[in-house]
Amino acid sequence: MKFAWKRILDVCLALAGGIFCAPLMIIIGLMVWLTMGRPVLFLQERTGYKGRLFRIVKFRTMNQPSDERKHLDTDAERLTFLGKWLRQLSLDELPEVWNVLRGEMSIVGPRPLLPEYLERYSREQARRHDVYPGITGWAQVNGRNGLSWEERFVLDTWYVDNWNFLLDLKIVLKTFYQVACRKEINRPGHATMPEFLGNSKETD
Fold first, then answer.
1. Does residue 26 sit within a domain?
2. What is residue 202's predicted lDDT score, i.e. its pLDDT?
3. CB neighbours (10 Å) of residue 10?
4. N vs C: which end of the chain shows fewer Cβ within 10 Å?
5. CA dist 37 to 30, 32, 131, Å?
6. Which residues contact 120 (CB under 8 A, 6 or more apart)?
7. Counting beta carbons within 10 angstroms of the beta carbon of residue 105, is it exposed (0 to 12), middle (13 to 18) or buried (19 or more)?
8. d(Cα 61, Cα 147) in Å, to the nearest integer?
9. Is residue 47 part of a domain?
10. How many Cβ atoms from other residues are within 10 Å of residue 107's Cβ?
């Protein structure tokens, strides 16, 4: 029943947001195309509800790695000025409304991460997949990328155990504040969130 009303709200908000933001997304798409070329969208496999795989859709924020330096170019080197700006305002996330409409994501939930992380979670951390992943989430409004992976996963599992309509509304409202203040955009010393390499020991 919980999933039913959450799904209805997700579809309504995604449709409204997609229509309202369509002109902005067209402008951003043109800016990405003019400054970075094609493709305009970034597609990447992520893990969703119960660990199911899906392809997330975002605006591209990095230049393509050069062929001869494919494994040498860092995220910091590839991240463009426009890309930094899009990430600061979370505008690169706007195309994810398509993932919400497809039933792969929710507006609110733990952020979907890479498939290779699945085998690196503790049993407790893996519970983040007991709900649908979100465009924004409890961890995003309580530290965002300034958190360590362990701190993020604690917040993710707390959300799994406590989510309800009022909590989701609080998270959405705090997201607007977080974006406006441009807080905790990057982890100190990193242009993007570093890779999760696993736990030094089981935490459950």
1. yes
2. 44
3. 24
4. N
5. 9, 7, 36
6. 196, 197, 198, 199
7. buried
8. 22
9. yes
10. 24
Give the per-residue pLDDT at 166: 93
Residue 201 falls inside a structural domain: no
pTM: 0.86
Averaged over successive runs of 10 residues, the pLDDT of the chain (204 residues) comes to: 83 93 95 93 95 96 71 73 90 95 96 94 95 95 86 96 93 87 57 74 44
Determine the pLDDT at residue 204: 41
**Domain of 57, in residue numbers:** 2-181
**Which SS3 state, helix, strand or coil, does residue 67 take?**
helix
Asked if the structure places residue 188 within a domain, the reply is no
User: What pLDDT shows up at residue 122?
Assistant: 94
Task: Quote the CA–CA distance of 60 and 40 in Å, as a whole number.
Answer: 6
Enumerate the β-bridge partners of residue 53.
47
Q: How many domains is the chain partitioned into structurally?
A: 1
